Amino acid sequence: MDESLPLWGILLTLTALGLWLEHRFRWAAHLGSSLIILILTAICANLGVIPRQSPVYDVIYDTITSLAIVWLLLLVNLQDVRRLGRSALLAFGIASFGTLVGALLASVLFHGQFLGDTPPLAGSLAASYIGGSLNFVGVGRALNLPGLLFSAATTADNLLTAIWLTTTLSLPSLLARVYPRRDEGEAVKVIPLPTTSAIAPLDLAILLSLAVATLVLSTALHQFWPLIPTVVWLTTLSLALAQFKWTRYLRGTSALGILGLNLFFTVIGAGTHVPSLMSVGLEMILFTTVIVLTHGLVTFSLGALLKLDVELVALASQAAIGGPTTAIAQATGRHQPQLMGVGITLGVVGYAIANYMGLALAQALSWIGLG
Questions:
Q1: Would you say 326 and 184 are in contact if contact means Cβ atoms under 8 Å apart?
Q2: In tens digits, what is the pLDDT along the chain, a chain of 371 residues?
Q3: C-alpha triplet 149, 154, 155: angle, nearest 5°
Q4: Comparing C-alpha atoms, which of 210, 229, 256 is closest to residue 64?
Q5: Which of 74, 88, 172, 251 has the fewest Cβ atoms surrounding its Cβ within 10 A?
Q6: Which of 301, 356, 313 shows the shortest CA–CA distance to 93?
Q7: Do 261 and 132 form a contact (C-beta atoms < 8 A)?
Q8: Helices in 271-322 by DSSP H: which ranges?
Q9: Residues 323 and 165: beta-carbon distance below 8 Å
Q10: Residue 324: closest CA among 33, 63, 42, 75
């Protein structure tokens, strides 16, 4: 029997447990499955239940995570972006700009603590707060963000995302006097929610072959043109594939992507040494807090200046910070069901652009001497 099979079994069990807890309990939903899985795996690693290093982790880190990025980007349909309308795209553009400003400010303030790791850390978190965990992982891997900082940033990321969701649920009411009230029909066009269907073996086979072929081609292109990271080729090719109509009918795309990404966090958890993590915890939370607070100030200030609908601005902010899932929670919590489809689409737009923006920010920070 392959000696790695027991470890695979433990990692898959921990992943399943984290996903189950997220769907079963409200407190777990606020934490997010990725953080829960990371914590569970870190506990097992620090107790000696699983090793801190293994060839299994290399397979997950290098291959499965890349395949997950392809699968999740196959969900990005640029035709839906055209249907959003000018106001929604402008609101999301402001939210993304606010994240970049926040990441720049945090880099300046905390460069003394993180030194050469500042650009990859800022780029990874900026990608997360424009897109989501998909982008955080992709950019972090491309920039060689150390495992310890990966763990600390994941914890801080999930904490601030939960806090910001609570904040944006109340901000529209608090800012009602500053923002002009608009009719629902003027704010944004209504986009229907995506439908789901059962997973089929044929679809899974096609998705596996597509993802593997995309990864192989991306790796070859990077070797041919080393200046462009593999994740950029991976993102670009996946987005191009996603525009073919037939890819939208493949069932299981999201499920495979989410499973692959959550497996990645078992690797990060396994490499986490708890005493070492405590030493960077406070600085990481402060770094992340500066990004999110600056994002909020820029987003809501410019939104008021441009006379955008406050509900739409809050939705765009949440789509950037937390992704499609928290955008749905924002629309539901504010009793704006007509905005749920818009929130999902904005979150998916974030997935599409965040890798490019996170990598560009990290490069810019290095150029100005913060690396």
A1: no
A2: 566 889 999 999 999 999 999 888 888 877 778 878 888 998 998 898 999 889 999 999 889 989 988 998 888 887 777 777 888 999 999 999 999 999 999 999 999 999 999 999 999 999 999 998 889 989 999 999 988 888 888 888 888 887 898 888 888 888 877 776 665 444 455 565 555 566 788 999 999 999 999 999 999 999 999 888 888 899 899 989 988 989 888 888 888 988 988 898 888 888 777 676 677 778 899 999 999 999 999 999 999 999 898 989 999 999 999 888 778 778 877 877 777 778 888 988 898 899 999 999 999 999 998 86
A3: 100
A4: 256
A5: 251
A6: 313
A7: no
A8: 274-305, 310-322
A9: no
A10: 75
Q: Which amino acid is at 178?
A: V
Q: Give dist(CA 329, CA 139) in Å, integer.
A: 26
Confirm if 327 and 88 have CB atoms less than 8 A apart: no
- Chain position carrying tokens 């080393």: 226
pTM reported for the whole predicted model? 0.80
Distance between CA 351 and CA 289 in Å, rounded? 22
- CB of 103 closer than 8 Å to CB of 368: no
Nearest Cα to Cα of residue 356 among 186, 224, 271, 234: 234
Q: Terminal CA-to-CA distance of the chain, rounded, Å?
A: 47
Compute φ and ψ for 359, nearest 5 degrees.
-65, -40
Report the SS3 class of residue 99.
Answer: helix
